[in-house]
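ok here's Glutamine--tRNA ligase, seq below lol
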Amino acid sequence: MSRDNEIAAEHFLDKIIIEDREAGLFSRVMCTRFPPEPNGYLHIGSAYAIHTNFTIAHKYNGNFHLRFDDTNPLKEDIKYVNAIIEDIEWLGYSPKGHVYYGSDYSDEIYEAAVALIKKGKAFVCDLSPEEMTDYRGTLTVGGKNSPFRERGVEENLQLFAGMKNGEHKAASKVLRAKIDMSAPNMNLRDPVIYRIIHAEHYRSGSKWCIYPMYDFAHPIQDAIEGITYSLCSSEFKDHRPLYEWVLQELAVNEPPKQREFGRLNLTGVVTSKRYLRQLVEGGFVDGWDDPRLPTIRGLRRRGFTPESIRSFIEGIGMIRTQSSVDIAMLEHAARQDLKPAVKGYMAVIDPLKVVITNYPKGKTELLSIPSNSENEALGSREVPFSRDLYLEREDFMEQPSKGFHRLTLGTEVRLIGAYFIRCDEIVKDEATGAIIELRCTYDPQTKSGSGFAGRKVKGTVHWVSAPHAAAADIHLYDRLLLDEEGPKDEAFDWVRAVNPQSLLVMRNCMLEPAAALNQAEDKCQFVRHGYFCVDSKHAADGKLVFNRIVALKDSWRKP
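and the structure came out like this:
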């Protein structure tokens, strides 16, 4: 029995692959690829595509290639190349040495174009871009042949060589495939396969001034690398006939097979590179690694782990059409990953001073508090306790509402890992009437772990010793966009669409001292507030800033 017969078809792509292998479609090993353009950063949708290609390759004991689609020097940069490689490695989808560049195949792609010209399947066209659009027709009306379509082979070869040698201006000529201007699929209406670009290429320098279009270069690159399956998102389905036409006309043996899966979108965020660029360049966010963005760099800076991202993608499964997934699923994956793995600390985000009037002045106790109640291996930490504390301002209410079970005047609460305290007095600012301090008393018989003599309270709150507290800024996040569906066209109004509450900066928050020892990208839990990560960008500037990865439960405010 073959191994393929032992593999269960978990989704529609599996079924296709198993049938092809049983039919002996390919004599070579399974090989897939992810072909990003180095003109931007990867995002969560990219991660889904990478995961699909990577896992299928490895499921069938094959190879996974990372190949840069670097055929447009006007938009590409080596910084994007390096960032993409780093992000893929961080995600855990290493190509293990199989990193390639489309520009390295320039000679082979050029020769393929020459071969098409010699077959009478390609011609040099002098129509302007505007004229070409007019000639192309519409979805309901067929196109018209270019007046240059019937140029002879020798003339086309001479003109194409002139394009290569820099004898013509940009946009003055293009090389087009000769297919069918009346085809219902507009991608087959004599598409452009080469254009003139006089620009320095980050990899090949000034060697070339003509560059192939993606739809022409991609199948040739796949064939060169021995790709078996070109697995791509559903928006490329209409491009498949052109992919197959190129391979057929070039008589490629055992041609790669293009198949599509659904594109992944997340509610409340943008997963289009074009729109992400508008957000970044418009100054609506703090760069491509802004923690509110679904870029891999943004998710990493926010504090999402590669394990949580992979778990999220695996939980979605294989989708056939474009789908929007609630961002709460990604957050759930993060909680499940972090809950048993990180240490917990106490942090007071909006501090209110508390003085325990019957606690000895100058005294400090070190209280042992477990770092994670679900993981004893993380041990305990010693937390200083003193006369002066900070509580959350929201944990006190002078006129308590119904159901409020925290501290009020004349009532008790339990301090996590410490004592019961009772509020005896409120101190207010004489000018504003704002509460600036609480004066409380503690019961030394209620120290945590001593049994409390059978006494109970309804409220338990966290705290930080004021003289030992470490100051930090904390960033809290909400959905980036008020419209969960995101932009629908180029006229999208970002000013009105961006949620003004998507980032809330809380300054001078008070942390127990152990929490301040965390370094860039370290994760932890702040009791009652959620899971947090030390912001790597601010850490590089010597500032201690924590980003909230997720709250303890789904708490997105609905727009």
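fwiw Residues 196 and 210 are 4 Å apart (CA to CA). kinda neat tbh
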